[in-house]
């Protein structure tokens, strides 16, 4: 529950009508606080994951100020609520680091795109998000989690886990390890283009799951969960969105026969995303977008397998071999993506 001291930084005790745990996130402690005039989201930031939580606030405020000045405000984002003393967050060594945003009324989130129209709505919202930020100075933002989508860094962690074999699981997963190692060189070439700036740096969301879009009725209304917003590549947002939105299965599906690239969702998301971003995309981005889903699926796949090799110390697990199940889903999805890579490339080139 929220400490009384934290609540009092924002409201008088008589102003609060109810406090309830909210959402199903695994990172922060999140609560919905209702007052007589509005509702708010209180979050205790997980400082083990976000070691510099003030950067989360810094980036959010930059984003908020920029979008307030935007001409085309098709969607909204949560906005930082100040304390009664006018501060943007509350921090105390005993109670932790707290951030408060407005609650977005008349909205809901979904965990999986059940219909291609939902994929389209997500593509349009995430495309709008990137387009709205294309002229902001990337140097103003800082990474809130260093090397979050850094391919070489994640590959290094994976190879280190293989070498150390801390819990002795390596011999049982030789085929999974070989699968990833056989594919690393082509993706290292793509990363070189990102590092060199040939694929330009942008401010991106960095966590484009469909549950970070809020819907009202059947239309996308808001882009939320802005903690990872910062410098990156458009390939990260486009690829990671399709890794989840165009997967026919859940992320920890036991029956691998259910894992495929959902083509209708791929096409609908891509069409909407390109409709929003076509005016800002560079030629190098257009030429490499079709590889982005493969890149991001590979990255999360080796992160799951790295955690499995290290004894499941990072991702929350709820059943035996959970991270191994997760990585096998990513492998099956990667196989299907590789088969459809020419189709993905053709779909994008035909659009232009």
Report on this model:
By secondary structure, this protein is an alpha+beta fold. It folds into two domains: 4-102, Phosphorylase Kinase, domain 1, CATH 3.30.200; 116-351, Aminoglycoside 3'-phosphotransferase, Chain: A, domain 2 (Alpha-Beta Complex), CATH 3.90.1200.10. Helix content is 44%, strand content 12%. It is built from twelve helices and nine strands. The chain has helices at residues 4-10, 53-68, 116-132, 151-164, 174-181, 184-196, 234-245, 263-277, 283-288, 292-309, 322-339, 341-351, and strands at 16-21, 29-35, 39-44, 90-92, 96-102, 202-204, 213-216, 219-223, 230-232. A five-stranded antiparallel beta sheet has the order 1-2-3-5-4, with no helix packed on it. α7 packs across α10 (292-309) and α8 (263-277) packs parallel to α12 (341-351). The N and C termini lie far apart (52 Å).
């Amino acid at each position: 529950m929220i400490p009384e001291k934290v609540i009092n930084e924002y409201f008088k005790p008589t102003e609060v009508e109810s406090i309830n745990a909210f959402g199903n996130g695994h990172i922060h402690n999140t609560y919905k606080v209702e007052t007589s005039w509005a509702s708010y989201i209180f979050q205790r930031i997980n400082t083990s994951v976000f070691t510099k939580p003030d950067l989360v606030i810094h980036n959010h405020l930059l984003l908020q100020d920029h979008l307030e000045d935007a001409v085309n405000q098709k969607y909204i984002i949560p906005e930082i609520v100040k304390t009664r003393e006018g501060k943007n967050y509350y921090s105390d060594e005993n109670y932790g680091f707290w951030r408060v945003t407005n609650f977005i009324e008349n909205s809901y989130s979904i965990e999986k795109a059940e219909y291609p129209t939902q994929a389209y709505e997500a593509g349009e919202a995430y495309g709008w998000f990137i387009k709205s930020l294309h002229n902001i100075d990337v140097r103003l933002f800082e990474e809130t989690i260093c090397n979050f989508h850094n391919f070489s860094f994640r590959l290094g962690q994976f190879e280190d886990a293989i070498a150390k074999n801390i819990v002795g699981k390596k011999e049982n997963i030789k085929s999974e390890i070989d699968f990833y190692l056989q594919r690393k060189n082509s993706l290292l070439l793509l990363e070189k283009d990102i590092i060199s700036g040939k694929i330009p740096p942008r401010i991106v969301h960095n966590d484009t799951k469909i549950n970070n879009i809020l819907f009202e009725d059947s239309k996308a209304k808001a882009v939320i969960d802005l903690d990872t917003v910062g410098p990156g590549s458009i390939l990260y947002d486009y690829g990671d969105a399709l890794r989840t939105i165009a997967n026919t299965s859940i992320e920890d599906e036991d029956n691998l026969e259910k894992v495929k690239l959902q083509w209708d969702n791929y096409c609908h998301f891509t069409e909407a995303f390109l409709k929003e971003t076509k005016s800002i995309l560079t030629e190098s981005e257009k030429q490499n977008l079709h590889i982005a889903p493969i890149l991001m699926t590979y990255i999360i796949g080796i992160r799951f397998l790295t955690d499995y090799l290290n004894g499941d110390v990072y991702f929350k697990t709820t059943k035996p071999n959970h991270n191994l199940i997760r990585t096998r889903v990513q492998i099956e999805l990667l196989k299907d993506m590789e088969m459809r890579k020419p189709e993905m490339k053709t779909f994008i080139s035909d659009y232009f």
